[in-house]
């Protein structure tokens, strides 16, 4: 077969006669019925003939077509289908482009997406406040940056101006940035360590004392632990679902939001365990709460509501009871001077004054892990069974009639 020349190709174009003219070794110049002109590489693999387009003329010249055909012949000689190899390469290029485009998503866009993905169970006030803090403090510095470009220096630029004067707010913003960047990494939008991580990172760059002061300033009016059993008696005589929620709150030491949004699938009442996913926890780490027999009995007596996954369903957009339901009940019972969160302090004071359980067990019962990074690396236990014993003792104390539950110089031992 005679080789094509540039003049021959040009004459074929001018003639416009449909057909294929060979150049040899499987390369053809094609004139289509519609007048289009292009290059074709024709080959056989596994006994089947295949045509592979090499590009249009004159974008692909005769010399360029011969190079492409030679590359295809090399693949075929190695037992590789040239068409399949090209399709694979194109798919890889598309995926690389998709990842490249995705990695250009800005921090502000990803923060809004995070709020939309996780905020369905939040109150409207909390949703607005969550984003508002970022708008005030983070977006001016890192809002327009792709998440791949957010580094420690950027996070410090956000936090340092407010760390000494609004430490609690600054730490909340730091936590939000950490959550958003963790989500970005989970979606393949960034790599490496999280520059907003506190332990082992920002703890070395920002004042720890300021953070401790901020924690101390976070004071919630609490009921004295000696008075909690009397309140439990009152709640037990109240047949409302909110009263059950209040009892669950007190008996487990959980946060109000954990109780309010609790679902039946989180509870294994046979094993006596309440398992919470990372997104349900303040520190975004999965956590399991041991349930005392009194709690299991309480929940077994709570009827399930058809069509709702929640223990405490409601009629609003969130599908759960009102955020202030427990607070309003406490007010009705004459306890406007205490807060829901304060019962965690009541429990902790009781544990500290009336038991000999180790401090780390008492703190972990409240999902507070105060072990430093080094200590945590060697001690990975969540002290679950010790926490179970502690919560059983707490439930027993609350179930004891107020007149006889005063501990006189005696301690409950771990």
N→C terminal distance: 94 Å
Structural class: alpha+beta
CATH superfamily of the largest domain: Intergrase catalytic core
**Radius of gyration, whole Å:** 34 Å
Total number of domains: 3
CATH hierarchy: architecture of the largest domain: Orthogonal Bundle
- What's the count of strands? 7
- What fraction of residues sit in β-strands? 5-15%
Task: Give me the side-by-side strand order of the main sheet.
Answer: 1-2-3-4
Order of helices and strands: HEEEEHHHHHHHHHHEEEHHHHHH
Instruction: Give unreliable regions as ranges.
Output: 371-380, 406-410
Main pleated sheet: 4 strands, antiparallel
The average pLDDT value, as a whole number, equals: 85
Task: Find the CATH topology of the largest domain.
Answer: hpI Integrase, Chain A
Work out the helicity level: 40-55%
The coarse overall form would be elongated
């Amino acid at each position: 077969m005679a080789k094509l020349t540039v003049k021959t190709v040009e004459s074929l174009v001018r003639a416009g006669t449909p057909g294929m003219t060979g150049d040899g070794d499987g390369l053809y110049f094609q004139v289509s019925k519609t007048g289009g002109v292009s290059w074709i590489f024709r080959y056989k693999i596994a006994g089947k003939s295949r045509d592979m387009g090499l590009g249009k003329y004159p974008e692909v010249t005769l010399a360029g077509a011969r190079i492409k055909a030679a590359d295809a012949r090399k693949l075929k000689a190695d037992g590789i289908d040239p068409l399949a190899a090209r399709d694979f390469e194109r798919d890889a290029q598309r995926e690389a482009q998709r990842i490249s485009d995705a990695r250009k998503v800005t921090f502000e866009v990803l923060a809004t997406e995070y709020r939309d993905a996780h905020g369905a169970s939040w109150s409207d006030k909390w949703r607005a406040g969550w984003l508002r803090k970022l708008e005030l403090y983070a977006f001016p510095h890192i809002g327009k940056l792709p998440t791949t470009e957010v580094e420690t220096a950027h996070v410090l630029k956000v936090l340092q101006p407010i760390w000494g004067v609004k430490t609690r707010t600054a730490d909340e913003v730091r936590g939000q940035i950490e959550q958003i960047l963790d989500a970005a990494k989970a979606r393949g939008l960034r790599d490496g360590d999280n520059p907003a991580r506190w332990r082992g990172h920002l703890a070395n760059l920002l004042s720890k004392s300021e953070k401790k002061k901020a924690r101390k300033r976070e004071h919630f009016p609490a009921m004295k632990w000696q008075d909690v059993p009397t309140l439990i008696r009152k709640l037990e005589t109240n047949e409302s679902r909110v009263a059950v929620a209040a009892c669950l709150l007190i008996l487990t030491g959980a946060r109000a939001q954990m109780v309010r949004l609790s679902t039946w699938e989180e509870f294994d009442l046979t094993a006596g365990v309440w398992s919470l996913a990372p997104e349900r926890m303040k520190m975004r780490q999965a956590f399991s709460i041991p349930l005392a027999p009194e709690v299991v009995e309480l929940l077994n007596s709570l009827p399930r509501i058809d069509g709702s996954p929640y223990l405490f369903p409601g009629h609003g957009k969130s599908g759960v009871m009102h955020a202030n339901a427990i607070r309003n009940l406490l007010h009705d019972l004459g306890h406007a001077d205490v807060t829901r969160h304060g019962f965690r302090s009541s429990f902790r004071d009781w544990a500290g004054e009336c038991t000999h359980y180790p401090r780390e067990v008492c703190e972990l019962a409240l999902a507070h892990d105060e072990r430093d990074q080094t200590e945590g690396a060697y001690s990975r236990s969540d002290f679950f069974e010790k926490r179970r014993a502690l919560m059983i003792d707490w439930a027993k104390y609350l179930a004891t009639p107020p007149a006889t539950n005063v501990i006189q110089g005696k301690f409950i031992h771990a």
